[in-house]
Batch of 4 targets.
Target 1
Amino acid sequence: MPNYTASRTVRRRLSAAARYRWAAVLWLIFVTATTLTRFAILAWSRAGTTNDGPVLVRAFAAGAAYDALVAMWLIAPFMLYLTIARSTRFGRGPQRTWRRVVVASALGLATFTAAAELIFFDEFDGRFNFVAVDYLVYPTEVTTNIWQSYHVAWASTGIAVVVALAMWTLRPVLHRFDQDAGPRPRWRLVAAGGYAVVLLALTTIVSPSLAHVSDDRVVNELAANGYYTFWQSLRGKDAPYDGLYETRPDSVLFPTLARLLGQDRPGLETQAGWSTLRTIASSSPPRRLNIVVVLEESLGSSFVGTLHPTDSASLTPAFDSLAARGTLLTRAYSTGNRTIRALEATTSSLPPLPGISIVRRPQSIDLFTLPSVLRAHGYGTEFVYGGRAMFDGMATYMRENGVDRVVEQRDFPAGTFATAWGVADEAIFDKALAEMDSLQRTGRPFYSLVLTVSNHRPYTYPTGRIQQDPAEKRRAFAVRYADWALGRFMREARAHAFFDSTLFVVMGDHGARVYGAAEIPLSSYEVPVLFYAPGLVSAGVRVNTLASSLDVPPTILGILGLSYESKFFGRDVFHTDSASGRAMMVHNAELALMRGERMAVLGPRSASTIYAVGPSGALSAVASPSATDRELVEEAIAYYAGADHLYRSGRYEFEPRRATLSAGIARDDANPRGSVVSPMQ
């Protein structure tokens, strides 16, 4: 009798498991897809990964844990269905059909995500991250770009074929699963409870740090799981600094920041709390100059012939020619790998905060920005963009922070050549010239921020402009076209009345793509920054001071000879000692501060690492940081935590009365050109 009872209990438990074979199929579909994706990434990025077998084993072991956890979460709703579905209806037609639809949908999702991950990895050399989250919010540009850049129809057909073949193969297996409706509800609840316990245990054990199996960034990306990294990025899109990164009390934080920013006294404290407000006194007379900032899409320094000469012809002859007649920053870095990071840096001069850019945040209203300061001094201000300005919240950010007029794709004539990202660069520049002429006729100086789009997938442009065929859709050709359009713009600008009293700042918004094994792929952030104004800015000068794109606003105001009260985190590069230069940048969830040949990287969960920076930008972790290294970590904490505290508390707001401490620049009509700038070398 005991044996019979025991065997009956076993049969009941096996019967309980029978129903959940459907869940096992779904789980295997997702795990198989993510594992194959990992092998594909390994093959794809083999040149950038280690040949160390044990490290790769650890990467795949960590990946298996991520895959198991993600698959369990993905099928959790289906597990709930299997638990509550009545046995009397489980084998009937509608539910049988619905279960097959779920399996087919899982196959389609798994295959589509695998393909998307490979495309994303090809572009960004990483798993889904903050970039993927940002792009998902604006599907029009992203889906159109994908359609123009890849063979979407063939890929969709391939996915459909994979799903159809898999469903045909699984047909007899799924038919057998339909024959057993499973046990009584009590045993199903036991099975579901066991599933929940395992799921919660895995969720507790598996963390983002599990993927850090090597100092090789690509290997760590290999270990990760795209679903998991996307979810982590989605959760942290507006993440506050505190709670994620190492911090210090304000009484320590802001005196350190005050010292770094050169304030008159340690820790300038107001009634509202700590602030970065300080007086910038110019030693030069004010000059009534127009300001034109050109942000060139994806123009990394690696493309610029004058910075990286090669045996082959330069991709940027127009930029090289301008550099010979202007002042070029040779060690400048973008603050991020998205255009909106360049927009926030070159307008607000804030370090890149964790999560999404402040351009995307609804609370970014009346910030202390370059357009706001200039508008307070009588400037007309505008933003010229060839795409939809709603993308990434650019239009709202600009209008709320000192920009009077926003020009976007709908303001261009119908039929203008365009890609997913907007009209071609030549059309953008033509429109910008017309807008500048209109501003010039008002008799006021003006500030114009021009953002180009052509150097971006799908890398197409109007025919007949350069020798290379746009139908080939090659990045190098898009770089050549963008440079051609820039050269044409500058040639035509010389014939306009505003040219002789205009300072042009031409710079890359970020590098072309993220690549390499380093935790912070430094060379991908290096961008050219050129100050060009014949007779106003010294010609042929190269400034080797380490700089960041957030240094652009105070450097422009320094050239103007403007005395003002500033909250900017950036510095006037031309009046900064070369030994004290520094650069700040964000890469995924890592926040970096570089000074000299050292870089401090702040990571989530209060992690911090010091890297030695090699001559080619290669990074190597410092095993035993010195006191100077630890000081660099403290400075990084002061910059990033201080910026986050000020932004979130509303203390980085623009105060017109303070900003117009010196209004001489708006009234100095007698000497609009002033003296020639002699930047520090």
Note: The two ends are 95 Å apart (CA to CA).
Target 2
Amino acid sequence: MIRSLQTTSQAVFRVEVIQSEESFPKSTALDLDVRRQLERSGNKVHPWQVDETLKELHRRKYYPRASRLQEEQFSVSRWPQVLRAAVEGKADLAVSSFGAALFYLQRNLIDGEILSMGIVKAYVPPESIVAGNRTAVAMTQLASQQDRLESGVDDGAHTSAGGTNELSRANGQAPMEFTHHESINTEDKINHMSLDGTTLHNLEILTNAVDHKVAGSLWSKINHTRTPHGARLLRAWLLRPLFRKSEIERRVDAVEELVSGGAAVALLEATKALADCGDIERLLSRVHSMSGNTLLDANEDESGQVHPNDRAVLYEAGKYNIRKVKDFQKVLKGLHSAAKIPELFAGIEIQSGLLCKIVRHTDQGGCFPSMEEELDWFVANFDCEQASKGLFEPSKGVDQVYDNACDTVESILSELNDYKEDMCSNMLSPRSFARSQWKYINTKPESKDKYLIELPASAAVPDDFILKAKRGSGQKQINKYRTGEVEQLVQQLELAFDIQKERKAKGMQLIFAKFDSMRTIWAAAAQTTAILDAIGALAHTASKAGYVRPRILECPQEDAPSVRVVQGRHPSVENTANSTEFVPNDLYLGADSSHGTASRVLLLSGPNMGGKSTLLRQTCLITIMAQIGSFVPAEECELTPVDRIFTRLGASDRILLGQSTFFVEVSAAVKKKKMTCTRYRG
């Protein structure tokens, strides 16, 4: 026994030694330059340290360089705000983790396409905030500033043309400072209600507990969105309900204004436009990937990385071209539909600050970009039919290199004609006969021996006409000549043809790159349409009978929190086939001015199938709906913001099937006993 244990320990020790000496895999790239970029010979496998990550980020130049006024060679001033805060704040673990993700993206050859978009967001666990971690609190405030607009809560913050917030440092505000002795009020650092996985499952937020499908869940009751990116945003709101009263009220104001009046009529028309938008958000990412962030006058971008199409052999290029053209058509169509939305709300007086921002143009104080001229340019300069056949040719002004090559071709062709006129007028005889019989052959770009001169053998030519070939005989003999001057012109012409061919092959990529260079405009349209779609879905829910606007109460530290619901109903049960006898419930928990001071703890008891779980769950769901900015199924509802919801572990009931918790637990026990007996008999 001792010997076997020693052997086992030695075997384990050997495995550990082998793993510690594991090296990075060798690159299989055929191109030597690409292989040299990917190879990391001599480096053992280990998590990237901070210095390695920063060195790689600077070397590959994913983000814009610092301005020339700054003397620092490795400045991070123009990097994404969250990443810059992590570097300057010495968040070493976060930067090292970012490096691990960077290495994975590099191995898959998609690092440039993803990182060049500059989308970096911060995730800070709630426990770090409660513990008062300085870096965690600072990153939380930074992340909160960054996602205010996309969450639909930003009010007075200055916004750029892209519709994203300029953060405190860009606005000239002093950076946040925290000391170890600073007393931190936890509630001041909370921005969202926390919902863990067990709570989401037991409350059936996204799926039901029976077959784990969407039907019957809270998500199925409020998801009336028309766009995929709007649905994703509403889902994010549902998973992270708001906590601050001002932010909740601001979103509810927008929802309430869309329920009735002129804004409601405009919303009906806007939903039709939203239905034609498609998934603008993902289509923009696809166009960015297809463009490769390529400059208009070079084969490589600033980082020196070649576009993936240039380092791959596409055996089905025709099929991929068709898919690219279709994706580009979809995004142009979606943006054209989105551009109609501000016109639908024009002339309507809007009171809600949030709604005003997402349906007004930037010159009217809103965030919706004016993009009609830009879209018309792409429609006029991109022939979808020719591009799908692989015959796309860049129009004037798209690519300066291609335009110069076209001008060179026209100039050389003009010189060839001038040369013909000069020779026929001064050097050849008889002149009229030579002018009528002179002919250039092999004039196509793919022809060999371009622009040979054909003349009858009877025509007298100068001594510098070199005979290259002839056809026919006797009086019908035709000679083919080449001169030194024509030879030089043909060499220049072939070089211009090569440039034309190369840039023409990149024509679609150049169009995509030009489109991607305006990504901030398109992203702003995607954000505003997503917010309008999500708020419109909540307005559709609010328009149902029996739904009321919740009243959000202030909760100072000296006061007790409270929840008061009058004639509340379960949003998922009330419209089911088994809900004909559903009885609304009242609930008073915590401080209540109208009914005296109630208890902060409620002990609920009753018989089986008495509705205990229904009451508990409907209270939680009403709270969640109230804090995402939705109306709630009740006659009256007022509550102080809730920061977290806890639910029990273990078995749960199946409300949609009318099965109580006791029934589910007994059924599970019986099923388990039958399985045990079957195994024993077997």
Note: Confidence is low (pLDDT under 50) at residues 1-20, 149-184, 294-304.
Target 3
Amino acid sequence: MTHYTASHWGIYEVAQGKAGPSLQPLSGDPDPSPIGLHQLSPELLKTRVARPAVRRSWLEKGPGSATHLRGREPFVEVGWDEALDLLAAELRRVRKDFGNSSIFGGSYGWASAGRFHHAQSQLHRFLNVLGGYVRHVDSYSLGAGRVIIPHVVGPLEGLTTTHTSWDVMERSTELFVTFGGVPAKNSQLSSGLTGHHRVRDGLHRLKRAGVHFVNVSPVRDNLDCGGAFDWVPLRPNSDTAFMLGLAWVLHDEKLLDRAFLARWCEGFDVFERYLTGESDGQPKDPAWASAITGVAAGDIVALAREMAAKRTMLNIAWSLQRATHGEQPFWMLVTLAAMLGQIGLPGGGFGLGYGALNSVGSPYQRFPGPTFSQGRNAVEAFIPVARIADMLLQPGAPFTYNGRTHAYPDIRLVYWAGGNPFHHHQDLNRLVKAWQKPETIVVNEPFWTATAKHADIVLPVTTTLERDDIGYATGEGRLVAMKAVVEPFGEARDDYRIFAALAERLGVAQAFTEGLLEPEWLQRLYEESRTKALDLGVVLPEFDEFWEKGLIELPAEPDGVIMLEAFRRDPEANPLPTPSGRIEIFSRTIDGFRLADCPGHPTWIEPVEWTGGGAGGTALHLLSDQPVRRLHSQLDASPHSVAGKVQGREPVYMSPADAAARGIADGDVVELSNSRGRCLAAAVVSADIMPGVARLATGAWYDPDPESGLERHGNPNAVTLDRGASSLSQGSVAQTCLVEIRGPVNELPEIAAFDPPELVGR
């Protein structure tokens, strides 16, 4: 019987050899990702946390001691009982003196795959049985999109899992226009697990079927359709203006579908006055759009005409809403699709992230997978996820979110599990200062990441390959019995065992464990999911059969999926979950918020940092995209990730013109800088990057020089901007960033990102 396991990058078959187990891609996967094959590499073992460790000043002098030394000070390894006793006492103290609203359950990140050993669920359940915690909402990936789209069409999660499937587009789509590409690197994965990788094959099938692809993006190589496509390079952060120019042509040449706008949409008349310039005196015509975007007006006109003449799918990458005013391109894309009138038809309409995840465009039936209940959080306070530094630096300060005003709580203890804020967050120099504010920071972590190095108490946890679990992700068509492959490293324990031990010390063990051990939980979660699946017509075997078989394939929709098909067929019987039940091109709700940076309809608003109008001077616009060789910062020390670096540093891509103007050659180490910080990276000169733009992927483990603060490894968040997308969403704005690049840098500091901290005795 084949032994399976799973990760975000795919399902694996476990092979046993003389040198021990190894991972092989799932048989039949048309495009397996190589990332997860390296999870057992010895290079990763060197970065593992072996024993519980406590920062020396915290251990010797107590909570709040020498917090400025976080990330610099040695750790003292202690036994599990001592570590758990210290942590239980600290949780007891903070709750007694400051209340549960002083605890931030910061577990943001992808963690490890598996439905039971899901770090965030484990931590949040534990904190909830203690009385609650301050939580986050939304994500760094989709902060602005998650807030704006429910006002316009409905919850983004529901749309993401019901996107028109690739097979339907192969039969019906004639033109595929994508803003920001369809990056294959992002589609290597899905949250939870990935089944068969379908995106590359889907794109290639569309091309063979005769689909014309147009990639509107500052970079060319974020689309591979297996053949030729048109590349429209435009200035970063100007996509909304480009789409407005397209919309103006549709309106001016009477190519828009007024019948669709009248029956299926709300508020086009208000937007129309803005588009034509009636409301503000500025028509959003192609000449206006050309001046902002750098795209020729004639090209805008030609594309608009082709869109109206063909069955057209409009797609947008998630990266476009990770910018100042990031709500606007998402809202404008839906508006443009509505003007074409093809929403709900086979092969037409819009996509909010084809290529963002492997699951987008899946034909598989949806049902709730196994879920470890987090319980109820008694604390109402929250923050938008990307505002953590604001919260720590400005306790009590007001912030707006989705039309309401809230206040940042005063956090005394941060407990993190399953994530790496020193990867996700922007302006890491500012985060380092904010990170000094809490009295205690606790991290459950398998590896000595920067987050672990900046903690006070570090508890070593197992990885996916060191425990049993159940793998499932919506839209991936598989249920996997994830059987442990190797023994736990060092003294690592799984999160459940850690929190059960803490719960015992704090008198809430029964509430947390319900008297069940890990195998009993796995069976319970599976049977609960099996019952839900049966209600939806999906028949799953009993648990013992599933565990023995190891892999269950789920049914697909025989005719594929068409997003918003039922709404298109009968909008009165199948209204959208918006105030009007229709697509809200003008939102009275948002207009009623009276936000200067997010009006009631899609609007072009100039970014706070950009190269338009000569505002950037000699600076380049830095794009910080997802990496090719890892998921965010996961497995950065693996040989697969390291092989993609140049001189040990993350590559920064530049156009030949920009490199020549700075005397930079391919392979040179260069310095990126602005008022927020500095980092080193290695130049790759590429014609796939338009002039005025540089690209540096995220995920290099944060590695600042302890004296100068220079980030040595190539982490772009040393220089990115930390502010909210708008007062509506407060989302991340990582893609709004200008930097100066100089080089070559000849005296290179050593990289210490993968070195464990100093471990000392008492």
Note: The mean pLDDT is 96.
Target 4
Amino acid sequence: MRFRNLRHGIRTAGGLFAALLLLTLPLDKAAAHSGHGAVHLDHPLGKRELAWKPGREIARVLSLNFDFHAGDTVISWSEPARLERIEGRDCVVGAHVLFDVNDAFMFDGDETVELELTFAKPRGGFILSYDHAVAPVASEHLFDAAPDTLWHTERLRLERARFANRKYAGTDFSIAGLGSQLDRGGGANDEIALCGLRITRAGDAAERAPAGRLELLVADGDGRPVAARVGIYRADGWAPLAGDSTLPVQRYYELARDLPMLSVPRGWSDKGRYAFFIQGSYAADLPAGEYEIFVMKGPEYRMSRAKISVAPGEAVRREITLERWRDMPAEGWYSGDDHIHVSRPTDAENAAISAYMQAEDIHVANLLEMGNLAGSAFPQYAFGEAGHHHAGDHVLVSGQESPRTSHRGHSIGLNGREFYWFERDYFIYDRTADALHADGGLWGYAHISTNAFNVGYGIALDVPRGKVDFLEILQLGLMDTGYLYDMLNLGFPIVPSAGSDYPYLDLPGTERVYVKSGSRDLPASWFEGLKSSRSFVANWPVLDIAVNGDSDAVEYELERGDRVKIVARAAVNPDFDRIARLELVVQGEVAARAESADGAEELVLEHELAVDRSLWLAVRAAGHDGGLAHSTPIFLYVDGDRNFANWRKVPELARKYIALLRDFGASEPKLAEEWERASVNDLVLPRWQDAKAELDRAIEDAIAIYEGLIARAEGSAAR
């Protein structure tokens, strides 16, 4: 057998929710609120409990269709796991199966566990993930068995197994088929058939040290208790389980206290990867020993580190003050996350949800009800002002990630007055975009940074027809400006956005949008500012741009020959990163650059240009340790011409998107690409056919717009 460690990227009250999701509304019109059918039956990840009993050491066996926090990405491209009888043996067959170890057998350990796994008709191999003592870990195991072998047994040693129920749905380890990885889509070889499982403890468990007690108080520079993210680690990264005084954080439809961190600022622990949230204070027993405490509250506060020594039977008290690195609201900037999935079936959840959004210092948290062809998940009790919850200058706002298909992209609607869901016209995204715009809301496309779900089809179709306000270009520590620059160079005014996609990807606020709103009238000023004022997307850095000394406007009226002086600054909290590069982008090309080989807390770039035509410009920055930022475009209009297209590039770009639309028109959705196939399997093709005639007309309309741009560009060149 051969295996490969897959740990990467990680340096980094279910019953009520399920019951509410099963409520239904009429399906032939837009739904005014949640409940018009439940995505994945009663769980966003399609959770199913399987009646497979391999031994009394296993309490539960579950099937889920997704796991991004296991040390590797796992996606079930096929149907949910099921039970099958193979040659007289009971087997569980599926792409992703999770196991909850009986707590009476082992809970919160730190020892070697041995697994014996018997597979039927082994093909390729499998991925094993388990709750490791320090950080989520996964490994790939390749079968040496011949393809025609009926039975094959693997014996594995899981070093430093924790088994503290920290995986999804309170599980401890999981097994997935090789084809279930994110980059191996299409359903090829993604299922395993597991027909036997034995688990034994190797007997090397270390004796737990007697307990002491920690009392922790966290305040801001004015002495006020504040919510924050906390990690407590031994030198090897081991962390005690979070105590009952932490904030219970909603993760899908369960409450969790210990959460794995995917992206880790440079000042955080080198090894510790589990963190928890507190509301100003924390008290818990923990094994005696030496620890280091890490406390953070988003990128505007300095990170705190404190070493403590806990003695048996004694209490240690620490008071930690979080000092500001930068007070962005005082400068008129307010942060927001455009992509968070948290259920709010009633307003009773508001205070708890707001607490951990405040811990990450997110001023506008957009909580997206998530739809697909079958219905929606992550319900919101109200939309519009009725769904706003204010806690000082932090606000929760209802939004939607819908329409959402794997064949033409996932869309996001912000600041709508209702949740819009059109059953028979689900593939006609126009319905939702137009309804949101009528509400004064914004609409755009998600997951641009990973170019996921054929999002290019949606962008090619909807941007030229004036449907799209923003593109979510920053997520998962990745930034992709390709579509944004193409559309700006074609003359279409869209802006960048960013979001964490919690809980699917990282913690809330890992990526965020800063908007210069000019007032504290949140969230209205934030949404208006995102559409028409200064903003920038970032994980950690902050940006500032002055055009001829002005740092507020996004549009400037100039005359041919005018000279424009641009001064750009990028800065970053030194506990998070160091700025390596700052670039000025003009019409999609880098016009000037400032760099620092060792990294700097701040970089400044100055550049002067003479304008002879209308154009757009922007600023972007990158850090040494993964920091990324990008400004909204700024438009320079010359002699009253408000068309800022890059006419030299227009013909090539327009033809590129015409070809993409022709491909879209000739295409058909593939069921194997749908993440939620179990709930939409019977709906995808019928709804595609329902929409096809109208989609074809929209495609031709968009192509006509591109062709008009080509004619104008070539006609101008001929003159």
Note: Residues 1-41 have pLDDT under 50 and may be disordered.
